Sequence to fold (372 residues):
Amino acid sequence: MRLRVAIENSGFVFRHNGDEFSIILPDASTHEAVNKIGKLLQDVLAAPFDIDGASVRLSGSFGFALFPDAGESMEKVIASIETALYHSKRKGRGRLTIYSSEIEKTVRENAVLEQALRRAIADNLIAPHYQPIISLQDGSLLGFEALARWIDPELGFVSPAKFIPLAEERGIIAQLTEALLLQAAKTAADWPDELFLSFNLSSTQLVDPNTAAAILETIKRSGLPPQRLEIEVTETAMMSDPETAAQIIEALHDAGVRISMDDFGTGQPSLGRLRELKLDKVKIDRAFIMAIGEDKPAEHIVLAILEMCAGLNLTVVAEGIEEIIQAESLKHFGCHAGQGYLFGKPQNATKTMGYIREFSRIAKSDREAKIA
Ligand code: C2E
Ligand code: MG
Ligand code: MG
Fold:
């Protein structure tokens, strides 16, 4: 009814089934016109409904197709609308998509990728690799960050920046995380006791109250003491349900797991939260580190982050160090630790063991040379 009133004389509203409606807008022939009507419909749905004294709010996902761009036949236009609607629903609540051939391509590619991803998880084709984290103050090896690597027999290398968000969208991230964490923690349990494992937690898991228990259960099975595990979370991930996120962090922290804030500086500023949350570490995003030596304002941001973290008693790791000059400047600034191609790229478990041995051999000969 509300939709009909909103559309008035400019179109027709039909109820398909249950919560699905179709709207025909004979005069809306441009993206602007469709966007305008879409926004109006979103607002109309968002206004509270009074149901037996309770106030209820709705949101809707919208998929539009323009005739004749979206196909000349009725079947093709309906298929285009479904593609656009599917795209909107995948993006989350209350989205609006207008069909285009690019959207069709993305939807099709993601469908292929999703199938391959499910197969890869089932066949254990996704494995953690490990990137070293080094003390900038004394050069010692502190631990490794686990980074998921997938080389598909058909698709080749697929970046985690692509498949992690897809796994989140399709609700298979918890399963993937568990498999990766178990494998990484078992690997780390064989490293020397002083080395830690840092593991990325996906944003969708920070809204799931079962996450802390699942992580603790997995590392228990692996034999890695919780004190040797660090969990990386991002600022943006904390935003959607801050209360649940804070509870998960607290439960992990209380079990001895350290928590670090990843990609610091790129998310929404939430400095107040840094104090409230039980955090141990902050990882400064590569974007700021890259600019060291070239861009004074970026250096000032790094200095400000270091000073703030010192006041809050947080350890700081600089991400993405590629040049010696960056490592030296950061050491001079008082930054605790660093990670980046300068020290090593992510490598598989076997090569990582070789790295650890080589590192301790060099450190030992350095010590002996100093004594001699
Ligand atoms: P991140 O956690 O911030 O990881 C750091 C990224 O920077 C990694 O990219 C790493 O390979 C890259 N990197 C490290 N040092 C350098 C450097 O010196 N130069 C440059 N150019 N890059 C460097 P990667 O492995 O492609 O991962 C991308 C993102 O995907 C990660 O960002 C993380 O957010 C996510 N990710 C990776 N593995 C996992 C996982 O197992 N679970 C979850 N939830 N997310 C993961
Ligand atoms: Mg990380
Ligand atoms: Mg990062």
Q: What stands out?
A: The chain has a mean pLDDT of 91. The pocket of C2E (ligand 1) is lined by residues 131, 146-148, 159-161, 164, 180, 200-202, 232, 262-263, 319-322, 339-341, 346 (CB under 6 Å). The two ends are 88 Å apart (CA to CA). Residues 349-371 form the longest helix (23 residues).
